[in-house]
Amino acid sequence: MLRLEHLFDRLGQLMARDARLDHHFALATIFEIIDVASRADLKSDLLKELERHRAQLQGYRGNPHISETALDEIVARIDHAFDGLNAVQGKAGQALTSNDWLMSIRSRIGIPGGTCEFDLPAYYAWQQHDAARRRADLGQWTATLMPLAEALKVLLGLLRDSGSPQRMHAASGNFQQRLPEGKSFHLLRLRMDGGTGLVPEISGHRLMVSVRMMRADAEGRLKPASEDTDFELTLCA
Question: Which of 115, 171, 209, 235 is the most exposed place for a label (fewest CB within 10 A)?
Fold first, then answer.
């Protein structure tokens, strides 16, 4: 889910620009999304997660501490995402695989220099269109992927909002925390001051979470840092 979110974010930024090269990489990103979303169980897993969240939220009905208006809004977003994804036939992006022109680009885009004008003259001709025409085509091709993007946005939003941030301290660059038994966490969020130049190396399992602060050397390799560091940790269930 996080990989797909990253790809959809990149796609949105590239499509909004005008340069031909940006639209080339937007098309490459579409192919990456299709590859990542090719798992047969992805769609069913997302639908099950949406249904689980909907059932959990419906259980809050009648709770005096819960705003019914806010609850209705969140449930409506889940319902819209569920209906949109459920209406998609087959895997995400499957409709694009029947487009021979797109598939000819996909088959060569991974080859170094494989999309040169003499290899794919029709693709080169498309790149000469004005930015608005290219953007409209990209929008048409990504239309079948948007229900997947919406479902991911709703699910990851709910997951990220499920945790409460806590201030933590890594003494000498190291931090460990035992996790409560019998409770499962699906996501860990860490926020820290980017001006420190430190890179958190995170590992964990169902019993413990560990964070080790690292610093890049002159060649970009990460090495342990020994200074005390404060950061914000959120465990999302």
Answer: 171
User: Is 126 in contact with 137 (CB distance < 8 Å)?
Assistant: yes
Which amino acid is residue 96, in one-letter code?
L
The residues that bridge with 167 in the sheet, in sequence order, are 232
| Class of the domain covering 2-158 | mainly alpha
232 to 75, 90, 131, 151, 193: CA distances (angstroms): 29, 41, 42, 27, 10
Distance CA(22)–CA(70), nearest Å, equals 39
- Taking domain 163-236, whether its CATH number is 2.60.120.290 is answered by no
Question: How many whole angstroms separate alpha carbon 192 and alpha carbon 68?
Answer: 35
Give start-end residues of each CATH 1.10.3900.10 domain in the chain: 2-158
pLDDT (tens digit per residue) in 71-93: 999 999 999 999 999 998 888 88
- Give Cβ neighbours of residue 112 (< 8 Å, ≥ 6 apart): none
How far apart, in whole angstroms, are the C-alpha atoms of residue 109 and residue 28? 7
Sequence-separated (6 or more) residues with CB below 8 Å from residue 60 = 66, 71
SS3 call for 211: strand
- Intervals of CATH 2.60.440.10 along the chain: 163-236
